Amino acid sequence: MGTLSYDADPRLLVVTASFSTYYLYKRFEPSRPAVHAALLLGIPTLLCFYLNAQLSVLQAVGVLLSHWSLILAFTAIYRLSPIHPLAKYPGPALAKLTKFYVAYRNARGDLYVHVRKLHQQYGDVVRVGGSHGPNELSFNRVDALQPIYASKTMKKGPYYDTRKQDDVNTQLDGVREFTAHAARRRPWTKALSPVNIKQYDEVVVQKSRELIEELAKRQGETIDLSHWMNLYGFDFMGHLAFGREFGMLKAGKDTSGLIHVVEEGVYASGFISQFPWILPIFALVPAANKGLLTMQRMSAGFASDRTKAGAHIKDLYYYLTEDESAAQSGVRPDELIADGMLAVIAGSDTTAIVLSHFLYYMMRHPECAEHLRREIDKAFPNGEEPLDFARLAELPYLNACINEALRLLPPALSGLQRRVELGSGGAMVGPYFVPEGTQVSVPMYTLHRNLQEFSPLPDTFWPDRWLTEDTYVLPTGEVISKDQVVTNKAAFVPFSLGPQNCVGKALAQVELRAIAAALVQRFDVRKAKEYDLESWEKDLGDAYITLRGPLPAVLTPRQPA
Ligand code: HEM
């Protein structure tokens, strides 16, 4: 055993050093591995030397553990104390204490359900975890949407740090500065404007026909409809973004393993986004971050091949590289490559998710499928293919069914994180003052089922709520008047809102209508015998966008009227 030669109380020295370390973490929020090493290992090592010593190994370990425990204790005391800036907001103690609380739910995939329960328990504002310290407020209020997503006092929060692909290159959806973001978004907006998306009509038609043809070949067999919606979504996006044929529909499978890579990458990215500070550490250990890196590498490959080959059609990359808007966007070649991943995920997975949900609801509510089929048969008589996009946009029940699927299960189930800017002095969200530095969000799944905005039966698939009628018949058969129905379109935000909303919304709607109408017109869709439809929602995973299990079904071709 060594003896300490330091004459002041050594415990006081350890406490002071630990408090200083805690303060440095709180004040500067360091993320570099070298700084963590200095603060967590370097300081206790210096302490050991300062305490002079021939300290035994056990005593040295004691100093180290005391240092760490004290930092954690100071952090916990502050977070639970009445002096914390969010102290007046309710929430579970664990959520106030640590962001691992949210990360745990994220890893389980049920964060969206859990956040809804918290709102039911605590009210319209709840302190939930957060990806930068447990400093996030969730608002289940329609008047929170504008200040959070459409005002310029809030930028994207640390959750979006995973959109940075290296030290300099960030995907479009990770660009926080509004001016830089607007410039980067310009060519995307042009490529996906209502006028220009007409150029992709041909691709929608071709892929819709391929889908119907391939499904017809498998009539009577049990097939996974969720998988087939993926094959459609990815094939379509290959054309739209990169002018490239993935050939998944024709092959009936994920030919290059891309879908699998995206699913793993989305899961990894959803989880890591809760701990953005871990990214620099992961950069040192690439194996730990394999899912995300493989997804980045693969989509960068598509984008890189496409930019080298040049445009042979006016696809997305034409607008990003060759159109006049490309030059004005100030985008660098490496950033263009980084945007390849955004194009793949944002454009294919989301559409496939919504189409899968739509089919699930059609199987759960055959009476709605029947109603929809009557509408389509009437609009497209004698078996005419439902590929007139202008006519499809006018079909009230079709749009009502799609809206209802998007309402109940939006692809981004949880809240999209924004942060009240540091130095802004704070911001008002509805009637609540939110201190600067706070992360805020409106959870879509929860708001879309808020009884004040969608009633009656906010949890029920009831497309009629989107129709304009004098009286309504509920699924129970009860007749109610229009005054008893609330459908607040301002609270319906599956594509988000404001300057960073979905730039592909118009195209997504064209695709959703075309594919949904074609499937309902051409097939009777029944769940597979051995499949329990209850499993569909149970199998969903919330990883920023939705992960799905299989949707086994049997299709019978029908002769359209
Ligand atoms: C039903 C289908 C879709 C839904 C529900 C959807 C939803 C969303 C949402 C909620 C956002 C905001 C994300 C955030 O703030 O973190 C977003 C962004 C985006 N979406 Fe979509 N999306 C869909 C389809 C598409 C399609 C087909 C494309 C492209 C062809 C697309 C391209 C994008 C892009 C590029 C962004 C980032 C925009 C920016 O940061 O300025 N989306 N989408």
CATH topology of the domain at 180-262 and 281-407 and 496-557: Cytochrome p450
CATH class membership of the domain at 180-262 and 281-407 and 496-557 = Mainly Alpha
| Helix content class | 40-55%
- Structural class call reads alpha+beta
Would you count the extended β strands for me? Answer: 16
The percentage of residues in β strands lies in 5-15%
Bound ions, cofactors and other small molecules, one mention each:
protoporphyrin IX containing FE
Total helices: the number is: 23
Going across the major beta sheet, what is the strand order? 1-2-8-5-3
Could you name the CATH homologous superfamily of the domain at 180-262 and 281-407 and 496-557?
A: Cytochrome P450
Mean pLDDT: 89
Q: Low-confidence spans: pLDDT under 50, at least 5 residues?
A: none
Shape: globular
Q: Characterize the biggest β-sheet.
A: 5 strands, mixed
Separation of the first and last Cα atoms = 93 Å
Transmembrane segments: 34-52, 58-78
Cofactor: heme
Keywords: Heme, Iron, Membrane, Metal-binding, Monooxygenase, Oxidoreductase, Transmembrane, Transmembrane helix
Binding site for heme: 502
Overview of the structural elements:
It contains 23 helices and 16 strands. By secondary structure, it is of the alpha+beta class. Among the domains are: 73 residues; 272 residues, Orthogonal Bundle (Cytochrome p450), CATH 1.10.630.10; 33 residues, no CATH class. It has a five-stranded mixed beta sheet with strand order 1-2-8-5-3. A three-stranded antiparallel beta sheet has the order 4-16-13. A two-stranded antiparallel sheet has the order 6-7. Helix 1 packs antiparallel against helix 2, helix 9 runs antiparallel to helix 10 and helix 17 packs parallel to helix 22. The longest helix has 32 residues. The model has no long low-confidence stretch (mean pLDDT 89). Its cofactor is heme. GO terms for molecular function: heme binding; iron ion binding; monooxygenase activity; oxidoreductase activity, acting on paired donors, with incorporation or reduction of molecular oxygen. Keywords: Heme, Iron, Membrane, Metal-binding, Monooxygenase, Oxidoreductase, Transmembrane, Transmembrane helix.
